[in-house]
Amino acid sequence: MGRHPQPEIRRTLLAACTDHVLAHGLPSGLAPLARAAGTTPRMLVYHFGTRDRLLLEVLQEARERQLRFFRQALAPRSEPYAQTLARAWGVLTGPQGAPFLRLFGALYHAPEGEVPWPDFRRAATTDWLGVLEEGLRPHYGERAPALATAVLAVVRGLLMDADATGDTARADAAFAAFVGLLGES
């Protein structure tokens, strides 16, 4: 008689593997994930079926964590949304946000066939539009959807710039200048 599924063990393994991937990036094999989870590659395959399935679930779990964290930073408050955006930039690019930016930045720019998550780029773009629109709508009305796209493009562009050059001070100053323009409209 075979073993019965144990969802609590699976959840614990997924959490440990996700923590490892956020700290170290996607591994080329299962051994680093198994070590991080205190198990064997064979047990990971038992619980997740395949390496690709495990990696997909790890990425989805990491993405859920990122969405919760970033949405909290971007959520509208009782202040002008330009101030919320300025504060959120520091949170998103700070120590808590950095693991997400590293992991998903690498995924976003990886060749399509190397990403174990079909349609990741589209999801990574559209995930943020709703919360940005919600914050911008009270002040910008019907322009909020277009402005949300512009804000997202500026954020993504400055993140790529900082990643490519290492000049985070310049990216921070550019975002502050951009937010200043939003506050003036």
TrEMBL record:
Protein name: DNA-binding transcriptional regulator, AcrR family
SUPFAM superfamilies, sorted: Homeodomain-like (SSF46689)
InterPro entries: Homeodomain-like_sf, TAT_signal
Domain of life: Bacteria
